[in-house]
Amino acid sequence: MSKREKKQLIRILISALLYIAAILLPVEGLAKLAVFLVVYGIIGGDILLKACRNILNGQVFDENFLMSVATVGAFFLGEYPEGVAVMLFYQVGEWFQSYAVSKSRRSIAELMDIRPDFANVLRDGQLEQVDPDEVKVGDTVVVKPGERIPLDGIVIEGASSIDTSALTGESVPRDIEAGQAIISGCINQTGRLTIEVTKEFGQSTVAKILELVENASDKKSKSENFITKFARYYTPVVVIAAVLLAVLPPLLTGQAFSIWIERALTFLVISCPCALVISIPLSFFGGIGGASKSGVLVKGSNYLEALAATEVIVFDKTGTLTKGSFAVSSIQPEDMTADELLEIAAYAEDYSNHPIAVSIKKAFGRDVDTTRISDVEEIAGHGVKAVINGKVTLAGNVKLMEREKIPYKSSTSAGTVIHLAIEGKYAGYICIEDEIKADSRQAIQELKAAGIRKTVMLTGDADAVGQKVAGELMLDQAYTELLPADKVDRLEELMKVKSTKGKLIFVGDGINDAPVLARADIGIAMGGLGSDAAIEAADVVIMTDEPSKIATVINLSKKTLRIVRQNIILALGVKGVVLVLGAFGLASMWAAVFSDVGVSVIAILNAIRALNIKK
User: Fold this and answer.
1) pTM score > 0.70 for this model?
2) Contact (CB, 8 A) for 342 and 532
3) Mapping DSSP to helix (H, G, I), strand (E, B) and coil, where does residue 202 land?
4) What is the CATH topology of the domain spanning 296-321+437-543?
5) Whether 509 is catalytic
C-alpha cells in the first residue's frame, strides 16, 4: 500500500469515527450543522475543490460535480447525516479504486524495474560507473553478481547463471558463458561477466520492452472506447433529468419542492457512472498485467480483447513449433558400427559451421584429431570430400552419391539425410531432424480445449518433414515447401475460413515472418527474449519459446472479457432498477449510496481478478 493510500485510509477512518460521534452527540440546530460540516470538510473538501476547479476549466459533468451537488443539496434539505454518509462512502469507493489500480500497476511496475540504473564500463583498465545511455557499441562492461545486465552484448569473459524472471515469468535461471549473446534487463546471479556491447541502450531489448509497456494503455479496446463515449453523453443527460425531476412534478402536481429535490439528489447519486468508468479499463489493465507476469507482452487492450475471438491459429514451423536446432535422429551403417559411421561423419564435417555439421559433431561428443584429416574439399550443393585416415571419404546428399556414381540406400526419413562413402564404397547414412519442442504438443491440445476451430502450419520445408511434424502435433492442416510470398497467399485463403467476427492469429519468430505477422488479425511473436525484431513486428510477444503460453493468453483474454461483461451488467442493472425506484421516491439516499459506491467496489474487486493467472 502506497503512502497516499495509507493517508487516504487514515482520513476515512478518522472521518468515520467523527461521523459516528456527530450522530451520538445530543446537539441540535446550528450546533448539529456545525459538527457535520466539520466532518464533511474533512472527508469531502477535496471533492468540492476538484468540482470547482473542473467547472472553471469547462469540465462540468463529472463524478466530482455529481457528488458535490448531491451532498451539498442534502445539507440544504437538513439531511446532514445523509450528506456526510454519501461523501464518506464515495471516498471509500475511491480508496478501493486507488488500491486496485495500484495493485494492477505494481504487476506492470515489476516489469518496468528491468531498467538498469548504471553500467560498469571498463576504460583504461578501470571500472567507471555511468548511465546506460552513455555506453556506446563496442564498449566493454563488467557485470558483478547481483547486478542487472545493462545492455545487450556478447559475453567475452566469465560464466554465470542469469535470472530472466522479470522478462519471461520463469523462475529457472539460465546458464551463460563466454561467446554467448546476452540481453539487457536480466540479473546476473553467480559469476562476474565481461560483456562487449552490441547495441546502444535506446536500441536494446530492455528499452524496446519498456516502450511497449508504456504505450500499451494508448491502444484501447472497443469496450473501453464505448464506455468513454457512453459516459460523455450519459452524465449530462442524467443531470438534465435530475433538474426536470426536481422542477416539473411540483409544478404539475402542486407538491412541495423539497420532496422532489430530495428525489432528484438521490437520482444524481445513483446515476454516477463510477462503476463503469473505473472497472472496465481496470479489467483490461489487470489482464495486461497478468499476462506480463507470465512473460507475455500484449501491446494494447484492443489486442487482448481480439484474442478472445480467435478461431484459426496459423503457425510457422521452425523456431515456433520446433526448436530450430538440428539433432541426429537415426544412424544406419553398412558393414560397420553406428559409432564408427558417426565418427567418420564428424571428421568429415569438422571444418564446417553449418547447423547440420554442428549437430553431427555434437552427437559425436568427442574432440576431433585434425591430424587424421587432409585435403578437405567442399562441393557446393552436394556435401564435402576429405581424406580421413588416408582414405577418400564423401559425406553429403543424394546428389553427391549420384555424381560419384555410388549406389546408395534411399531413406524414407522425414529429416535431412547425410550419405557417406569410403574409397568409393557406400558406408551408410545419418538422419538429422529439427526437434519438436517438448511444449508444442501440450500447446495444441490446450488451444483446442480453448475452442480454437482450426490449427494450421506453414513451412518452407519438404512435404515429408512438414507432414510428419503436423501429424505428431495433431494439427488440422499443413502447407509445405512454401516461399515467403506463398505464406501470405495461404494466409489470405485461411482468412476466408473464419467467421466475420472471428480472428486469425499467426505465430512466428518475428524475424522472417514480418509480412505474414502484419497480414494476420493478430501477430504473435515467439521467443521475444533476445529478438528485438519480434518485439517490433508483432501485436503480442511471448518472451520465452513456449507455444503453450498462446493458450494461456487466449484464456486470459476470455476471462478478462467475462469480467468486463459482468461489470457492465452489474452496474447498468443495479443502477437501472434503483434509478426508477429513486424517481418514484421508493429509494432512499442510502440505496443511492449502495448503487454507486457499493456497485463500484464490487466491480473493482471483480476487475482485480484479471490479474490472477494460472500458468
Assistant:
1) no
2) no
3) helix
4) Rossmann fold (3.40.50)
5) no
